[in-house]
Amino acid sequence: MEIILQGGSVAEILSRLAKIWKSPRFRIVFWAALTGVLLGVSDAGLPLEDIIVNGRTMLRAHPSDGQIALVLQDDRTLEELQLADIPRVDDATMTQNLLAAGARRVFFDRSLSFVGDDPGNEAFIKTLKAHRGRIFLGALPSNDQASGNYAATIPPTVYRADADVVSLLALNHPFNLSISMPFASDSPAGRIPSLAARIAGVSGSVDDLFRPDYSIKYTTIPTVSYVDVLKGRFDPRVVRGKDVIIGLSAVMYHDVHPLPAQGYAPGAFFHAIAAETLKRGVPMQLGWLPPFLLILVVIVSGVGRGRALDIYRFTGLVVVLIAIPLLLDGQNIQVDVVPAIAMAAVAVFRMRHLDKIEVAGETNAGSGLPSVQALRKYDEVSNRILVALKIRNYAAIIGSFAGEVEAQIAHEIVRRIRISDSQVVVYHEGGMFLWLSTIRSTFDLFENLEGLHRIVQNGIQVGGLDIDLSFNCGIDSEFDRQVSSRVASAMQSAEEAVRNDELVYKYDSHKHEARWEISLLTQLDRAIDNGEVWVAYQPKLDVATNRVTGAEALVRWTHPERGPISPDKFIRIAEEFHRIERITRFVVNEAVRAAVELRRQGLDLSISVNISAQLLRNPGLPGMILDILALHGLDPEKLTLEITETDRLDRSSRTFQMLQKLVQAGLKLSIDDFGTGNATIDYLRYLPASEVKIDKVFVQAMEANKEDLLLVQSIVEMAHSQDRTVVAEGVETLAALEILRAMNCDIIQGYYVCRPVPFRDLITEIKGREARRTG
After folding, report:
1. What are phi and psi of 547, to 5 degrees?
2. Taking Cα atoms as reference points, which of 170, 162, 172, 89 lies closest to residue 132?
3. Higher pLDDT, 770 or 229
4. Taking every pair of C-alpha atoms in the chain, what is the biggest distance, in angstroms?
5. Rounded distance between C-alpha atoms, residue 601 and residue 603, angstroms
6. pLDDT at position 121, please?
7. Which of 150, 631, 644, 760 could form a disulfide with 672 if both were Cys (CB 3.0 to 4.6 A apart)?
């Protein structure tokens, strides 16, 4: 007989389950979920949960509402009364003084035993009878009681005849990281409410505990000394209309405990905080299951290789698991997140390890890099630009070495690719290297590849030999297609770039024209007139004052059909055909006009513009710049010219004489891209410049490369020794800023401060940053 169930027979269901179990990713999810469940149903994760909750508590710290007051038997009370034990007659007098001052109710945070020969007993009993229902006495566990919610030590019957009893029990968490409170406790007198529950007027089971809101600052709870109340030396307003707790704070009582996120405090403060918590409403305990299920759904939806469970997604999950509970805390809703975090941690760690194993099976044997075949299996869409970089004569280079050097050469190429695109996976096949760039903007990617080309032009060293490399790139940014189908397009575009001797060729499924430099040249003047060519501004931040003190003007061309065109591309074309003066005149005019407008708005910034080396041989350059300055009424010292020289610098050259003329006219000079080409110590010695700009290639690489770090440091020291201001460009991280700050770099520029932005956004950025700095 075969049992048939909905969805198939038992055998079919078992077969499907067995097939699922064979999936290593399913097994990872199973064991990760089991880890979370075990932590959820046990107290093993409680210490870590307490640490997380205490962290949120510190962020939410706020004052008490002041509706509960404390009367403390402090050291001053014992010293003034010269007594270790307070007699009942004093308790009676103090209680009467509180009620006479307008206190709503009085709660004793201590167990009052009956002392037969104390003459104050009669007075105390009389006080209890006179104020029946307004005085509450505490009950404690016995001295030999190990654990449990049972208040064995209760006030004597003669007191309980006219006063209700409240539980003073609390539950310490492991390592004293927190304290929970019960709603009620069992006792010899039956079930009694906790002090906090009685004040708040709520009820609950002896099995139910709640975590008080320890973000309430205990130092803001109104307090008064016992002796002052006893002798009538207190302001009645402190207790009027409030519930009052009589507690112990003198050192000899040993009633001081660690209060989460606030240090140590007497026990009475815990009851006051717990009572204020319950007055806001009984905390809703969602437990560990809701966040656990939420993260389980995320994990299950992202089990595919390279999909959801990377380190960044995991970081985002942890942030969410901390941020959402923080918001819920403010609504008196409590959740436990450790089981969910543990499950996510196990799943991410194991799946990342599995990813590495699977990638190892799709590796290029010669270089050790992932093969392009692995990328062809990427059957999903991606919003990243796919780059294919083709090394010219790659096979000939590899063949010229007797030993196995392909891995070394590939490693050097990948290291240079990752200087400014550090998180990418590079795929290798023959002379082709492909990656999905983390740089989102096509324009920024063009700039990045131009910089990479400058680095690679310097060659690499393998086996003690220098190897000259040259490459061309193809890119595919058609995000609607699967990556696997874009691989061929990017590689085809790289081949097209080689044939047409272009650095970068962008794949266009609608247009495949190979060269269009002449077309660009014919469109340039019209593009300037039509507003397609415009100027972006990137702020420069003074490291010492944290203020924006200048901005660099950067030319941009947004083509109506091709989108952003790399400045290196159209500027190179303009230089080749001697049309660079038109672009320079336009940029200088816009930059000077911007500087004047900034001054009009109260922002005294200097503006810098790039000057082509070709123009330095044009005798009309100083006159052109000075005419523009005069037209707008800007002081020449507010304009800095950034110079990148490609020829050897000689003090007798026409270029050097031109630079002297510019300085004599009052303009400032900056040595751009210092550290590359001919921008070396000769520049510092002879060039009449006041500023040195360290090339971004070195700045972006210094965090990971010690050689680049030492190079940047030596440039800073060398420039300072020549009394030059040092500007570091390409600063993209806080870590880079801190390194440069330690080097005493003067000014930074880069995406960490701000991207190049239109002029209106520049004003907003500067004013916003200044408001944050002074606010």
Report:
1. -120, 145
2. 162
3. 229
4. 114
5. 6
6. 87
7. 644
What's the whole-number mean pLDDT along residues 96-113? 94
Token look-up 């406790």 returns: 185
Q: Which amino acid is at 577?
A: F
567-576 vs 442-457: helix crossing angle, rounded to 10: 60
Give kind and range of the element (H or E) at residue 108: strand 105-108
CA distance 503 to 182: 73
Q: Where in the chain is the domain with CATH 3.30.70.270?
A: 372-506
Residue ranges of the chain assigned to CATH 3.20.20.450: 517-689+756-774
Residue with tokens 């707008």: 632
More confident site: 163 or 311:
163
**Which range among 145-149, 174-178, 218-222 shows the weakest confidence by mean pLDDT?**
145-149
Q: Who contacts 483 (Cβ-Cβ below 8 Å, separation ≥6)?
A: 375, 378, 379, 380, 381, 382, 386, 436
Find, among 630, 377, 387, 670, the residue nearest to 507 by Cα.
387
Q: Please report, rounded to a whole number, the percentage of residues in the chain having pLDDT higher than 90.
A: 48
CA 759 to chain centroid: 28
What is the C-alpha separation between 477 and 440, in angstroms, rounded? 10
The token pair at 518 is 């002449």
Angle between helices 289-301 and 338-360 (to 10 degrees): 10
Half-sphere exposure in the Cβ direction for 321 (13 Å, CA): 28
Which residues does residue 91 pair with via DSSP β-bridges, in sequence order? none
pLDDT at 671: 87
Which CATH number describes the domain made up of 372-506? Answer: 3.30.70.270
Region of poorest pLDDT, from 175-189, 437-451, 751-765: 437-451
DSSP string, 511-536: ---S--HHHHHHHHHHHHHHT-EEEE
- Report the pLDDT averaged over residues 135-139: 96
Nearest-angstrom CA–CA distance, 128 and 292: 51
Q: What local confidence, expressed as pLDDT, does residue 502 receive? A: 84
Q: Which pTM was predicted? A: 0.50
Residue 4: the pLDDT is: 44
The mean predicted confidence, pLDDT, of the chain is 85
Higher-confidence residue of 613 and 576: namely: 613
Q: How far is CA 472 from CA 449, 454, 476, 590, 768, in A?
A: 9, 12, 14, 34, 41
pLDDT digits (tens, 9 = 90+) for 332-373: 999 999 999 999 888 888 887 777 666 655 777 678 888 887
The one-letter amino acid at 131: H
CA distance 164 to 132: 9
Beta carbons of 127 and 92 less than 8 angstroms apart: yes
The CATH homologous superfamily to which domain 517-689+756-774 belongs is EAL domain (3.20.20.450)
What pLDDT does residue 470 have? 86
Residue in the structure block whose two tokens are 């704070």: 249
Tens digit of each residue's pLDDT (9 = 90 or more) over 233-272: 999 999 999 999 999 999 999 999 999 999 999 999 999 9
Residue whose tokens read 């082509």: 612
Please say whether the beta carbons of 636 and 628 come within 8 A. no
The CA-based angle 599-600-604, given to 5 degrees, is 15
* Cα–Cα distance, 651 to 460 (Å, whole number): 32
Quote the pLDDT of residue 148: 78
Q: For residues 520 and 547, is the Cβ–Cβ distance under 8 A? A: no
Backbone angles phi, psi at 511, to 5 degrees: -130, 135
